[in-house]
What we know:
Layout: H1 6-15, E1 21-26, E2 38-44, E3 50-54, E4 68-71
Amino acid sequence: MRFPSRELVESIRKHYPVGCRLELLCMNDVQAPPVGTKGTVRGVDDIGSVMVAWDNGSGLSVAYGEDSCRRCDDD
């Protein structure tokens, strides 16, 4: 696994600030919330994973380069 650069992690943090809302588009995990589930960003860790408090109670992170989400607080 290749880790993102420090600059890329900072870019991810700026795009997904704490408290913003997002929607899950794709997550390859048997315990993943359903596609379309919304959640609130709790932070971005040092490997670029977006830590999320999903509305359904899940706490799985969106893994950089593996999973997909989009900001929806602008909708």
